Amino acid sequence: MLAAFATLLIFQCLGEGISHALALPVPGPVIGMLLLFIALLASPALMERMEATGNALLSHLSLLFVPAGVGIVAAASSVQGHWLAVLASLILGTTLTLTVTALVLRLLWRDTPTEGAVGDAQSSAGFSSTASSGEAPSASARPTVTKAVGNAVTPTQAP
Predict the structure, then answer these.
(1) Greatest distance between any 2 Cα atoms in the chain
(2) Would you kindly state where each structural domain of the chain is located, as residue ranges?
(3) What tens digit of pLDDT does each residue of 83-121 get?
């Protein structure tokens, strides 16, 4: 786990160095995160080594928001006359983020095959679409239940 934390710090420092050397307007940790993402895609072994550390950090994610909250409280006096702009940007940013996320998920789900989905699993388990319309399934459409008698297993119809 210590090696994974060192890897995270190395990529952050690389990002800071690139941002500083090239005078980029992008923060160094963002560049470091992109470099880490590329390295994780290129090396599955690195991904396996980083996974446990990532899960440990995610389990304590709420603690990582404390410094940001303290920073907001400390900077509240400098934003005093701009509350409307801050509130509007928060609402607009949240709405935009949710909309883009929903559109991306819709695009991703549209490309996934639906064969073998829940509806197919229900029909293969013996349930028919008439059961959802209020009619009882026929005796042959009921799922079979296996009953063990001694060493033999015999299928029987469900009641």
Answers:
(1) 81
(2) 1-62
(3) 899 899 999 999 999 999 999 999 888 877 766 555 544
